Amino acid sequence: MTFDYVIVGGGSAGSVLAARLSEDGKTTVCLLEAGGKGHGLVVRLPVGTVVMMPGRGKINNWAFETTQQPGLDGRRGYQPRGRCLGGSSAINAMLYIRGQKQDYDNWAQLGCEGWDWESVLPYFIKSENNIHGASPYHGGSGPLQVSDQLSPDPMTKAFVEAAHQYGLPISTDFNQGDNEGVGLYQVTQFHDPARRGERCSAAAGYLHPIMDQRSNLTIKTKAPATRILFEGKRAVGVSYRFEGKEQVVKAKREVIVAGGAFGSPQLLQLSGVGRPEDITPHGIAMVHELAGVGQNLQDHIDFVQGFSSKDAEGFGIGFKGALRMPGQIAQWRKDGSGLLATPFAEGAAFLKSDTSVDRPDLQLHFVISIVDDHARQLHWGYGFSCHVCVLRPHSRGQVVLQSADPLAAPAIDPGFLKDERDFKLLVKGAKITREILLQAPLDQYRHKDLFGMTPNMSEQQWEKLVRDRADTVYHPVGSCKMGIDDLAVVDNRLKVHGLEGLRVVDASIMPTLMSGNTNAPAIMIAEKAADLIKADAT
After folding, report:
1. Closest of 96, 50, 90, 36 to residue 203, by C-alpha
2. Among 246, 418, 444, 536, which is 20 to 30 Å from 427 by CA?
3. Contact in structure between 388 and 426 (CB atoms under 8 Å)
4. What residues contact residue 335 under an 8 Å CB cut-off, 6+ apart?
5. Which DSSP string corresponds to 328-378?
6. What pairing do the DSSP bridges indicate for beta strands 181-184 and 345-351?
7. CA 276/CA 134 separation, integer angstroms
């Protein structure tokens, strides 16, 4: 089989690319996805994330682990990643956040021309179908439906009041380039009457409506790529595994790698592109030496606090919740609202750790349930939790091969808290979060601390608790960074340096982590990349 474009990975970026590159009806596109179609009820139902995210049975989830992290006292972290069409947008909390204006302006200052805020904003707008319609900052007709939360919990409203009482301004829109404040997250959730309340993953928005209607688009699911094929320095196809057999698909124009921050560097290394020390020990022949492949990995390091509650608000395990569940199911089926439509992380806050900081450096996710070890440790009863993460970490890690087996997980080392500045900021953020959670508006819901925090803790106690409990909040980026420096893997058109017919298009190209959740930016990257690819083809 031969196509104009072969896209590897049907996640958030790959779904966008497949839809955009095939929309003229003439350009032939093949999309390879290692997982399934991502359209089952467990994906469509927002509360289904509690089934998928913990990784039990690896339902639509790669459920990776990190290497042992010295900064976390030798613990291994957890790294859930979506494994189906839509990728992580099929299993995440659906939060729609773009980041700060300065984040993108900084990309441009690092040599990524055309990726400043004013240049990327049109692509955020192009992708979006916001419930409030079109405006200078929002789109009203894009494939990705973005909604207000349909049934925010009373606990979340109390959190917003608590953070406001602490001193944060109320924000009604976190996506205009300045995020500071507290409020409710908008979510990637259908708001049209036919599917109101369902998750709008990138696949649901871009791909599922057209995938069976375009003869020029071929999608193969459960077809993991094993390596990129080269003729000299030009990528000409991809080898993949399907129904137990090795098969090949050829690309006349380009191979586009969209495997995410872990999958993209892994596939490049399996194909002989990267650092020799990461490749040749596994018996793989070098094709092209490129120092940055797998380097520059960044992620939001996060710490969670939680309280039990005597009230049965929110989502929990107990008799009261079980008794009301039939009514909640009926409500969601009727109009898409109710507890089953929750993103769990309903409350948003972006704050500065100090007045000297130019933009928020901490983010809070207020959750209407007890979160312990990514919901892998369950608790009887009800309560609330609050994440705090370091928005622009200094620590850097890497992704490298563990073996030549393309189906084996890569070695993921985020380097959590490797830089002491991240550790000090996370401890400070945990203390601030504690102050917010102890404000009066949450008094009626707050009962017992669940994770060992007590009044008047010493600095040493805080530091030990943070190292004992910190982990990812699921935003790995940067392992195939865009730029012009020695570790840059792609240029500002996302073409791999030194090779032909090969691009990387996903969150791995981000040179630095933005100040917020990464799904909306990954979709933006693919929208912009689609235009760059089309322009280069003319």
Report:
1. 90
2. 444
3. yes
4. 196, 197
5. HHHHHHHHS-SGGG--SEEEEEEE-SSTT-SS--EEEEEESS--STTTTS-
6. antiparallel
7. 49
- 3-class secondary structure, 174: coil
Strand order in the sheet with 398-400: 75-79, 64-69, 411-413, 398-400
Cα angle 35-47-185, degrees, rounded to a multiple of 5: 100
Which positions ≥6 away from 181 have C-beta within 8 Å? 168, 169, 170, 171, 174, 349, 350
Cα distance between residue 534 and residue 17, in whole Å: 11
d(CA 495, CA 501): 8
Q: Which residues are CB-contacts of 333 (< 8 A; sequence separation ≥ 6)? A: none
- How far from the centroid of its chain's Cα atoms is residue 340's Cα? 21
Q: How far apart are CA 308 and CA 319, in angstroms?
A: 15
CA 321 to chain CA centroid, Å, is 30
SS3 label, residue 163 = helix
Give counts: helices (H), strands (E), the chain.
13, 22
Q: What residues contact 158, with CB distance under 8 A and at least 6 apart?
A: 441, 442, 444, 445
- The DSSP code sequence of 477-513 is B-TT-BSSSTT--B-TT-BBTT-BSEEE-SGGG-SS-
The predicted pLDDT at position 97 comes to 98
Tallying the residues shown for the chain, one arrives at 538
Cβ-in-10-Å burial (0-12, 13-18, 19+) of 193 comes to exposed
CA gyration radius, the chain: 22
**Rounded CA separation 399/290 (Å):** 14
Residue with tokens 């080392």: 413
Residue 447 is encoded by which pair of tokens?
Answer: 């009962």
204: exposed, middle or buried (C-beta count within 10 Å: 0-12, 13-18, 19+)?
Answer: buried
75-79 and 234-242: which strand pairing? unpaired
pLDDT digits (tens, 9 = 90+) for 454-508: 889 999 999 999 999 999 999 999 999 999 999 999 999 999 999 999 999 999 9
Nearest to 226 by CA among 444, 502, 8, 531: 8
Neighbouring C-beta atoms of residue 296, cutoff 10 Å: 26
Report, as residue numbers or ranges, the catalytic residues.
475
Distance CA 126, CA 438 (A): 41
Continuous segment of H or E residues that includes residue 394: none
157-173 residue pLDDT tens: 999 999 999 999 999 99
CA distance 69 to 75: 6
Convert the pLDDT of each residue in 88-105 to its tens digit. Answer: 999 999 999 999 999 999
